[in-house]
């Protein structure tokens, strides 16, 4: 009986310690909000719609995802805290909300006048995707952090035809966008102002703010 009681106390003590660690203010990490400008490098070659092949020959043309603004909302968890100097490492997770990146244009092989022609399109739909990242860098002072950010986000892209203002998808896929680039953080009390740039299969510039949770 004494052994069982001891085990029970030990288990409760361990659970209490874990809960205390998880819910202490400094363990909650930071909230991050960023405004980003994305520059895509995605193009799509379109075939003619099956219903139009009776009177239109050749390919319908090419569309490209348009450069656009995005809004990132992230939770950042420090793995290594640097203090007033030294290195730091953190992980983050959140969501990317993308603005309109749609490209819609008249078929290259359609000679009919505006209002009667067929169109092709490519777009991001839905306009939200998961986002994860890692930040590694150096704290130069209590006010300046310089490092590198590695991010991955997943966005669903579909492309096809727009006929009579009705979208018909030809292909749809989730695409991974990987970026890495420099990041500067200027710290004022509990706030940090973020300036960065990401290079990858799509580039982006970011301006944001983070705060202690």
Summary tags:
single chain, 213 residues, mainly beta, Porin, eight-stranded antiparallel barrel, 1 helix, 12 strands
Report on the architecture of this protein.
It is a single chain. The chain has 213 residues and is mostly beta strands. The chain has one domain (28-212): Porin (Beta Barrel), CATH 2.40.160. Helices cover 10% and strands 62% of the residues. It is built from 1 helix and 12 strands. The chain has one helix at 2-23; strands at 30-40, 43-46, 61-64, 68-80, 86-98, 103-106, 119-124, 128-141, 144-163, 166-188, 191-200, 202-212. The strands form 2 sheets. Strands 1-4-5-8-9-10-11-12 form an 8-stranded antiparallel β-barrel. A two-stranded antiparallel ribbon has the order 2-3. A hairpin with a 1-residue loop joins strand 11 (191-200) and strand 12. The radius of gyration is 25 Å and the shape is elongated. Mean pLDDT is 86; it is low at 1-9 and 17-26.
Give the SSE layout.
Elements: H1 2-23, E1 30-40, E2 43-46, E3 61-64, E4 68-80, E5 86-98, E6 103-106, E7 119-124, E8 128-141, E9 144-163, E10 166-188, E11 191-200, E12 202-212
Short description:
With 213 residues, the protein is mainly β. The protein is built from one helix and twelve strands.
């Amino acid at each position: 009986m004494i052994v069982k009681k001891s085990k029970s106390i030990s288990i409760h003590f361990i659970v209490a310690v874990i809960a205390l660690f998880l819910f202490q203010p400094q363990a909650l990490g930071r909230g991050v909000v960023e405004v980003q400008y994305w520059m895509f490098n995605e193009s799509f070659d379109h075939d003619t719609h099956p219903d139009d092949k009776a009177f239109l020959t050749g390919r319908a043309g090419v569309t490209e995802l348009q450069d656009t603004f995005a809004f990132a909302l992230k939770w950042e968890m420090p793995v290594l805290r640097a203090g007033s100097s030294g290195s730091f490492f953190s992980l983050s997770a959140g969501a990317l909300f993308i603005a309109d990146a749609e490209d819609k244009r008249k078929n290259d092989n359609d000679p009919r006048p505006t209002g009667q022609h067929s169109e092709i399109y490519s777009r991001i739909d839905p306009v939200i995707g998961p986002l994860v990242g890692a930040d590694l860098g150096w704290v130069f002072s209590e006010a300046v952090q310089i490092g590198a950010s590695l991010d991955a986000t997943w966005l669903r892209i579909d492309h096809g035809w727009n006929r009579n203002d009705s979208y018909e998808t030809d292909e749809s896929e989730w695409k991974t966008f990987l970026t890495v680039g420099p990041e500067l953080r200027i710290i004022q009390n509990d706030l940090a102002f973020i300036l960065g740039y990401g290079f990858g299969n799509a580039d982006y510039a970011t301006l944001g703010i983070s705060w202690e949770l």
